[in-house]
Automatic annotation (TrEMBL), chain A:
<keyword id="KW-0808">Transferase</keyword>
<dbReference type="InterPro" id="IPR045074">
    <property type="entry name" value="GST_C_Tau"/>
</dbReference>
<comment type="function">
    <text>Is involved in the conjugation of reduced glutathione to a wide number of exogenous and endogenous hydrophobic electrophiles.</text>
</comment>
<feature type="domain" description="GST C-terminal">
    <location>
        <begin position="88"/>
        <end position="216"/>
    </location>
</feature>
<feature type="domain" description="GST N-terminal">
    <location>
        <begin position="3"/>
        <end position="82"/>
    </location>
</feature>
<protein>
    <recommendedName>
        <fullName>Glutathione S-transferase</fullName>
        <ecNumber>2.5.1.18</ecNumber>
    </recommendedName>
</protein>
<dbReference type="GO" id="GO:0004364">
    <property type="term" value="F:glutathione transferase activity"/>
</dbReference>
<dbReference type="InterPro" id="IPR036282">
    <property type="entry name" value="Glutathione-S-Trfase_C_sf"/>
</dbReference>
<dbReference type="InterPro" id="IPR045073">
    <property type="entry name" value="Omega/Tau-like"/>
</dbReference>
From TrEMBL, chain B:
<feature type="domain" description="GST N-terminal">
    <location>
        <begin position="3"/>
        <end position="82"/>
    </location>
</feature>
<keyword id="KW-0808">Transferase</keyword>
<dbReference type="InterPro" id="IPR045074">
    <property type="entry name" value="GST_C_Tau"/>
</dbReference>
<dbReference type="InterPro" id="IPR036282">
    <property type="entry name" value="Glutathione-S-Trfase_C_sf"/>
</dbReference>
<comment type="similarity">
    <text>Belongs to the GST superfamily.</text>
</comment>
<dbReference type="InterPro" id="IPR010987">
    <property type="entry name" value="Glutathione-S-Trfase_C-like"/>
</dbReference>
<dbReference type="InterPro" id="IPR004045">
    <property type="entry name" value="Glutathione_S-Trfase_N"/>
</dbReference>
<dbReference type="InterPro" id="IPR036249">
    <property type="entry name" value="Thioredoxin-like_sf"/>
</dbReference>
<dbReference type="Pfam" id="PF02798">
    <property type="entry name" value="GST_N"/>
</dbReference>
Amino acid sequence: MADEVVLLDFWPSMFGMRVRIALAEKGIKYEYKEEDLRNKSPLLLEMSPIHKKIPVFIHNGKPVCESLIIVQYIDDVWKDKCPLLPTDPYQRAHSRFWADFVDKKVYEVSRKVWATNGEEKKAGKKEFIEIFKILEGELGDKPYYGGETFGFVDLSLIPFYSWFYAIETLGEFNLEAECPKIVAWAKRCLQKETVAKTLPDQKKVYEFVGQMRKRFGLE
Amino acid sequence: MADEVVLLDFWPSMFGMRVRIALAEKGIKYEYKDEDLRNKSPLLLEMNPIHKKIPVLIHNGKPVCESLIIVQYIDEVWKDRCPLLPIDPYQRAHSRFWADFVDKKVIEVLMKISTTKGEEKEAGKMEFFEIFKILEGELGDKPYFGGETFGFVDLSLIPYYSWFYAIETIGELNIEAECPKIVAWAKKCLQKETVAKTLPDQKKVYEYVEQMRKKFGNG
């Protein structure tokens, strides 16, 4: 019996993009369902009753929630093709650590830039650059965080690239000038079809962020 | 060559306790080093330069940080005995989800109760019970979150039991009255030698919390 795979998602979500990239890397066919987050579907509320958030991955009727947990699940189930995590336990722990760092730091600090004004925004911009300099340090001279190949950490971070134009414009800074290695790495990832086809257009994300800011009374 | 295992830790840390329980479950010999968090050792700063936090597991000189990542590392390296995570990918994802829920929710609400007053503290208390009732719901009628055997989710949550007396006293609440299943589960876990030997005495934790509260002007 063929696998039934459904993804509940929201197009600008960096977390959803991680899952979309993982599914593309593994060549898994799935049904994509776009959620209206101001009017969540009964399916979403049933499948993610605890957090009520996207992305939710539904595999043969059973839900998996939280993007990094979903990606590891996908890697565990479809393990015969295109491994996303390394095989060595120490390298796996190292990958999990850096994906966790992205989770703990990058979304929050991005919000501090796009969802604020004035002094708060200025402080957010400083922190954003600091965090990306730490990420540059971890990348070092490697082509990818995974080493020679695109892996778990690359997948956790690359979706934020689609938000860079919005953050740079609102934050009034040039990320390429501050963190050239990060931008070079991102452009290398964008050469992969799975990433290029998944990430939404930066200008489209910028328009979306503008709408959110108006709604929050920031514009 | 025998494995060299060192744990940098701090005795009241729930996160450290998770690692200590995992090491005990696997029967791994290790050197325990208690850190003074007001005067962190050069070793800690070298081994965890990003977060500068405990616990840090150092295995043959190589550090692993973040408690749930450390526990998964231990489970993968010493995989021949006493598995902590389930083998089935869906069950693994389910375990990771609930351990992540514990990570996201419990420490924050504990801090709210310990460090605030008045309305904020009352809100914290309400939230505490909401969270633990959700956990009771997930436990259901199972002896452990892991089912018939103590597992990853049990291990992530049980260290908080050593803080219950402190929370009940400072928060003026009765956890057993509101969440009897959780307390019954905790007492079942305490029957395991690995847990009983790891968890510090509840009164000792209360004294520590009171010292911290006085230092930060909350007590």
